[in-house]
Design brief:
Two copies of one chain form a homodimer. Chain A has 341 residues and is α/β, with parallel strands linked by helices. Chain A has two domains: 4-126 and 328-340, Rossmann fold (3-Layer(aba) Sandwich), CATH 3.40.50.720; 131-322, Dihydrodipicolinate Reductase, domain 2, CATH 3.30.360. Chain A is 29% helix and 23% strand. Chain A has nine helices and 14 strands. Chain A has a six-stranded parallel beta sheet, sandwiched between helices. Chain A has a six-stranded mixed beta sheet with strand order 10-9-11-14-13-12. Chains A, B: Keywords: Amino-acid biosynthesis, Diaminopimelate biosynthesis, Lysine biosynthesis, Methionine biosynthesis, NADP, Oxidoreductase, Threonine biosynthesis.
Chain lengths: 341, 341
């Protein structure tokens, strides 16, 4: 197998670091690794697997000789440099929202729509974290029973908002008694005009609001799910909520499948052994997924599988995954692995 | 107005204390107040509003001369003493699940079904906390537009599991770095065979499991909602999740109303000014309900009102209330106030 010259743009961020770690851990056939970030981080050293890497500033020439560039430095950086990297010969796997809904750019979760990679023209988009874990878990059900409708409520971790949000949660968590007066300057999002404490709270806003009253995070789940499944007739609606959890997104997912007469046990059987999925679903042993125990794990965990007593095709699932791994870094590397196969 | 001799059973618990506080705060016409609890708490002194109350052990004779007895000491205590209290002349307002689904016992949220009080035979049941805030918020919509279906995912506070659960969250919150190894001995429920940390986690189990795979908390929401609305044809399904929040339950509620052509603005207008409801719903000012700011408040807060883009009668609401107040103590006192009117 030919080895690849790899660049990671946004290498100092939470996801960028996980991409580097996972590349080494999964023995990706790397010839060289170039860590790129803003001029502010240039010169910084990152030690992974006993090796020291020095961060360089991202400039157009950074991509000369690069085969594969992972972008995870925000949508603006992707818009500025992704096409440049492609022009200089790289394939770009972009973890931002910059190109996800662009018609000719594949939006890929390998367990679901690996085939979409065939028509790529240089840029491949990695979906939003909360979308990835949901479609991974629903794909086996969609294949076997059909899928008509999805209504999801999320329980999302602060690490999705970056290292500063984690620090803010940690600091606020010490202020139990005067929790309502905790200082807040990051969440719900760094650019927002108002900030609220996340410790001992639940904030029903992730990203900014659209004129429809939905947040961009909710619209990502709605639109990306339809694109990945290639099904514009699928009904999807979403409510996205940030929680005082460090890492690990949870989702209460309600589905209406395309068949009646299916039992919760049928759903469970369709999920057991499916790629990337671990079923944790045994009430008798209080076995169900929880974000605290999904942190650091590659899999998507599914439990609380139940039939809606009042609807012949309705089911509940509780889906949990590490938002920095399957929700971001791992999925990006799985895309790269699919490409070189 | 004639004054009443009042007893509070479970007076040393979180809800019992709130009942006492609210009775005084709302100038309920009290002739005397008797605080009752287990023999373990007898002799304990409770100071509220400058007055000192001494806790007595609950025995059958405790209810002699009592007009109104609030029960909030667990279902077993209610089963042991509620009928005894009625026999001795008291009206019982029971905050446990002991009698909620008993056919001839009214299950009452005054804003919704005050009329059900007319046929009481001594015991009146106060619904489950998560049910109360949901039906309060949905009642004006049900009246105006009809209600066909409810799918709810909850985000529930630890104070619903008592003072020990609050202490456990506080203690675990200091263990940020080794959070997955936090000691846990209370949640998901004191009687469970396994316990999980709640700090930096989300536990998709409240109360124990039924053979259907639903938890008792979920079944309470499903069955109580149908009973309070008096509508067996209403479709209700629920997923209940415990969060690292001290007080304040949040709910992501999806509804299908009985009319099409209704807008989110119509829903908002139907809720503004409705009894017990405060609408906090302005994306332009990041105004939406959050549990951290609902703590200590009497009202049910509603926001994030949106139309499902893919369903002509589907809407989302985000409903937050103090689970110890409107979810328990306040609603019990509102029932008492309805009775004496």
């Amino acid at each position: 197998m030919t080895t690849k010259s790899v660049a990671i743009v946004g290498a100092t961020g939470a996801v960028g670091k996980k991409i580097l770690e996972k590349l080494l851990e999964r023995n990706f056939p790397v010839q060289s690794i170039k860590l790129l970030a803003s001029s502010r981080s240039a010169g910084k050293e990152i030690i992974v697997g006993g090796n020291t890497y020095t961060v360089e500033e991202t400039v157009p020439e950074s991509f000369d000789g690069v085969d594969l560039a992972f972008f995870s430095a925000g949508g603006n950086i992707s818009k500025m440099f992704a096409q440049e990297a492609v022009t200089r010969g790289a394939v770009v796997i972009d973890n931002t929202s910059a190109f996800r809904m662009t018609e000719h750019i594949p939006l890929v979760v390998p367990e679901v729509n690996e085939h979409a990679l065939q028509n790529h023209t240089g840029i491949i988009a990695n979906p939003n974290c909360s979308t990835i874990q949901m479609v991974t878990a629903l794909q086996p059900l969609r294949e076997k029973f059909g899928m008509k409708r999805i209504i999801v409520s999320t329980y999302q971790a602060v690490s999705g908002a970056g290292a500063e949000a984690i620090a803010e949660l940690q600091s606020q968590s010490g202020q139990f008694a005067d929790r309502a007066d905790s200082e807040a300057s990051i969440l719900p999002s760094a650019g927002a005009s108002k900030h609220y404490p996340i410790a001992f709270n639940a904030i029903p806003q992730i990203d900014s609001f659209d004129s429809s009253g939905y947040t961009l995070e909710e619209l990502k789940m709605i639109n990306e799910t339809k694109k990945i499944f290639g099904d514009d007739d699928l009904h999807v609606s979403a409510t996205c909520v940030r929680l005082p959890v460090v890492t690990g997104h949870s989702e209460s997912v309600y589905i209406e499948i395309g068949k009646v007469g299916i039992t919760a046990e049928d759903i469970r059987e369709a999920l057991v052994g499916a790629p990337g999925i671990v079923v944790q679903d045994d009430p008798s042993t209080q076995s169900y997924p929880m974000p605290l125990f999904a942190e650091g794990e590659d899999d998507v965990f599914v439990g609380r599988i139940r039939k809606d007593p009042d609807h012949p095709a309705g089911f509940h699932l509780w889906i949990v995954a590490d938002n920095l791994l399957k929700g971001a870094a791992l999925n990006s590397i799985q895309i790269a692995e699919s490409l070189i196969r």
